[in-house]
Design goal:
The protein is of the alpha+beta class. Helix content is 39%, strand content 45%. The longest helix is centred in the N-terminal third of the chain and has 30 residues.
Length: 125
């Protein structure tokens, strides 16, 4: 019975942490922090920036985003939609990034393993 009670208190905390991770990710996009965003990248991540698309390791992906954010300084990010897979093992997020140059549509696909968010795909179009 004690284990059951413990699980009842633990599960909401795990869900809260997962929501915090997505909030941290969207805040990193909003502020143009490629380094913070890189903390959530999987070992290899597919990055699509405008017409350029490839799979990069974490450090290459961070460098690509730093270059993008230098040329397109973010003014804000508005999350439009998010969803989860049936077993909650993955999540996606769609939003609009407003920058000093123009507005972009952002799409992220995130794998969730052991309550850790790992961005596997990031598209900015």
């Amino acid at each position: 019975m004690m284990r059951f009670t413990f699980l009842l208190f633990l599960l909401p905390l795990l869900a809260f942490k997962a929501d915090q991770d997505l909030t941290h990710i969207t805040q990193a996009i909003s502020s143009g922090s490629a380094i913070t965003l890189g903390e959530y990248f999987d070992d290899n991540v597919e990055i699509a920036l405008l017409n350029e698309e490839d799979v990069y390791d974490k450090s290459q992906a961070v460098h690509k985003l730093e270059s993008f954010f230098e040329q397109n300084q973010p003014k804000g990010f508005n999350q439009v939609h998010e969803g989860s897979s049936k077993g909650n093992s993955s999540k996606y997020c769609i939003g609009n990034l407003k920058t000093n140059n123009e507005d972009f549509r952002v799409y992220m696909f995130i794998d969730i393993t052991a309550n850790q968010y790992k961005i596997q795909e990031l598209r900015i179009e």
